[in-house]
Amino acid sequence: MAHIGSVVLKVDDPRRAAEFWSGALGYHLVNGPVGDESPVLAPEDGTGPSITLDETDRTHLDLHVSGEAELRAEVERLIGLGAERVPWTYPPGADFVVLADPEGNLFCVVDVGQG
Known about the structure:
Layout: E1 3-10, H1 14-25, E2 27-29, E3 40-43, E4 50-54, E5 60-65, H2 68-80, E6 84-85, E7 96-100, E8 106-111
Parallel strand pairs: 1-4, 5-8
Antiparallel strand pairs: 1-5, 2-3, 3-4, 6-7, 7-8
């Protein structure tokens, strides 16, 4: 079953957002200096979802699964619960699927098991 792997926040200033959320939650930067395309903050103790800071994307949840088969099964399970596929232009080799919940909120199911 999928779990919340990351909360993607749309931000105007990644540096300011990183400083705030790091201080507010005790998170640390895990993928390079602030100012990267989408810096990621994670809990110091490694438990709980990360926060991805993105200047171009909408605020949404990334649900994580492990492996392509689990990705397909989880997408179908979520559709069975009322989610809908969203028309999306995927890059080659995409490891995620974009869905909308019954209220129209977008979220992604991401295969984090791919190497």
